[in-house]
Amino acid sequence: MSGAAILRAHAADGVATALRPLAAGEVLAGGATVQTAIAAGHKVAVQAMAAGQPVIKLGQMIGVARCAIAPGDHVHVHNLAFAGGAGAAQAASRITEVAPRSASFSGIVRADGRVATRNFIGILTSVNCSATVARRVADHFTPDRLAAFPAIDGVAAFTHSSGCGMAKAGQGIDNLRRTIAGYARHPNFAAVLIIGLGCEVNQIAALVDREGLTVDGQTIRTLDIQQAGGTRAAIDAGIAAVSALLPAANAVQREPVSAAHLTVGLQCGASDGYSALTANPALGRAADLVVAAGGRVILSETPEVFGAENLLIERARNAAVADALRQRLAWWQDYAAGHGADLDNNPSPGNIAGGITTILEKSLGAVAKSGTSPLNAVVDYAAPVTAPGFSFMDTPGYDPCSATGQIAGGANLIAFTTGRGSVFGSVPAPTLKLASNSALAARMADDIDIDCGRLITGAATLDMLGEEIFSAMLALASGQRSRSEELGIGDSEFVPWVPGAAM
Fold first, then answer.
1. Alpha carbon separation from 80 to 44, 65, 226, 481 (Å, rounded)
2. What global pTM score does this model have?
3. 204-211 and 171-185 helices cross at what angle (nearest 10)?
4. Cα(427)–Cα(158) distance, rounded to whole angstroms?
5. Based on the number of CB atoms within 10 Å of its own CB, is 320 exposed (0-12), middle (13-18) or buried (19 or more)?
6. Could you tell me if 64 and 52 are in contact, meaning their C-beta atoms sit under 8 angstroms apart?
7. DSSP 19-70
8. pLDDT band at 2 (very low <50, low <70, confident <90, very high)
9. Which of 2, 119, 397, 448 has fewest C-beta within 10 Å?
10. Per mean pLDDT, which range of 2-6, 128-132, 431-435, 485-489 is the poorest?
11. Which residues of 243-260 are buried (b: 16+ CB within 10 A; e: fewer)?
């Protein structure tokens, strides 16, 4: 593909992707003349299409022509309309039962046999009212104060905007409690301190009881600000509690373990016109390798598979799994309608600027991240992911919120694709960021771990990139720091999904 001006991904496609800016009057391979200047990553028509005719990309319908489209026309929001809705994609997924392979990384084995990729002490909050105390406690443990504990990756506070002014029962508080409990149990925490105010709806005692947590003073401790005597007293008590946890948390060492202990959250949908051609299918290849090694991968962001869900349903292990995914899509359609929105408003201004026009186009890229292995389970937000191989977790498309659910469900790594640029990171599970195009990888080099744009230039193949990403996952799991970790990003990206009324 080196030197090519456009890429037509499938023989049935009526559009191609511009691999560089196209000038008006330029004659393309196949004979079409570019009608107006077209930005890199955007679509150009390679055949005539009548008004109302389906527009095909990646062998799938991404919408219909608003008007007649001639070869060489720029195809975007002005002449391409959303159509089709749920199940628009024709089920044509390639399903592969991946052959087992042996792989390992250097992990931290906890006393109960679970394996960690990082070793943090976490400060969790039951309610927004305890956020300041939690952050002040975490801020006390500077690198200088932790220098005597080199095996500890840090002390991090996880604050949020909920926990009170909410219903005492229902999806909102259930999601919040599952999220907090999932973090409390996460193997990447040597120990956690849960801080509450005392009078909140999300009572710590009820949280502990409902989620079956064990407050043993060693791996889980709790603190009530009102009972402690207020802000200053609670900060002092929190610092003392964490200080008491440091020696045991530091008494760990890494050892070789099977890659079967990897659980990777697959993040971000498709953010530009290259995403479905490079980063997302490359991550899909790596996801298949994780599954082949006995590990788990989690695809999420339910609104961002809308229209392409049939490609996942085709891969469902059984009818129950397929029905569970259908039910979640139906719920999201009702949820969006109830808030005066529809799922096609998902492509963001940045997505549109990058060449993505409809949710159908975005969803094709999103699904590509999951590879080709069978879909074994569909789970609720922040619920434990226990099935082997590939699972789907119901989450919003908002990346921090989605990744928070994946980590609560057990993800010990996050793999994040981006075409427009991202400053995302995550704690306690580190994030590996993959650029869909080389221009972005060069422009934001401090934020990007792997340049998948090399696929376009011919410098790499999908198989090569898949192996490279998988190797990077193993290195990251073994303690190598990601770009986002080097920048100190991650604890502010804790965003539990709490739907429901604020009262």
1. 12, 5, 58, 42
2. 0.96
3. 80
4. 9
5. exposed
6. yes
7. SS-B-TTPBPTTS-B--S-B-TT-EEESS-B-TTPEEEETTEEEEEESS-B-
8. very low
9. 2
10. 2-6
11. eebbeebbeeebeebebb
- In the chain, domain spans: 1-81, 120-250, 257-493
For 68-78, what is each residue's pLDDT tens digit?
999 999 999 99
- Per-residue model confidence (pLDDT) at position 87: 55
Position 490, amino acid: G
Nearest partner of 366 among 286, 465, 282, 267, judged by Cα: 267
Q: Give the domain 1-81 fold.
A: 2.30.130
Amino acid at 26: E
Residues 6+ apart with CB under 8 A from 10: 56, 57, 58, 59
Determine the CATH number of domain 120-250. Answer: 3.40.1400
Element spanning 299, H or E: strand 296-299
What pairing do the DSSP bridges indicate for beta strands 120-125 and 189-196? parallel
Sole residue written with tokens 């690198």: 143
Alpha helices of 251-358 — where are they, by DSSP H?
Answer: 279-292, 309-313, 319-338, 349-353
**208-252 confidence digits (pLDDT tens):** 999 999 999 999 999 999 999 999 999 999 999 999 999 999 999
What token pair was written down for 29?
Answer: 């391979």
SS3 224: strand
Parallel, antiparallel, or unpaired for β 60-65 and 154-158? unpaired
Tokens of 109: 């084995």
3 state SS of 325: helix
d(CA 461, CA 19): 16
Closest CA to 311 of 392, 389, 379, 414: 392
**Encoding tokens for residue 453?**
């744009």
DSSP 94: P
> In degrees to the nearest 10, what's the CA dihedral of 50, 51, 57, 59?
-70
Token duo for residue 329:
């899509």
CA–CA separation, 372 and 494 (whole Å): 30
Residue 499 CB neighbours (<10 A): 12
Give the separation between CA 284 and CA 293, rounded to whole angstroms.
Answer: 14
Place of tokens 């929190």: 238
Element (H, E) at 125: strand 120-125
117 torsion bin: left (phi>0), alpha (psi -120 to 50), beta (else): alpha
Structure tokens at 405: 């659910």
Over its C-alpha atoms, the chain yields an Rg (Å, rounded) of 24
Angle formed at CA 182 by CA 261 and CA 200, multiple of 5 degrees: 170
Full DSSP string of 148-160: T-TT--EEEEE--
How big is the CA angle at 310 (ends 335 and 461), to the nearest 5 degrees? Answer: 115
The more confidently predicted of residues 95 and 378 is 378
- Average pLDDT of the residues in 427-453: 97
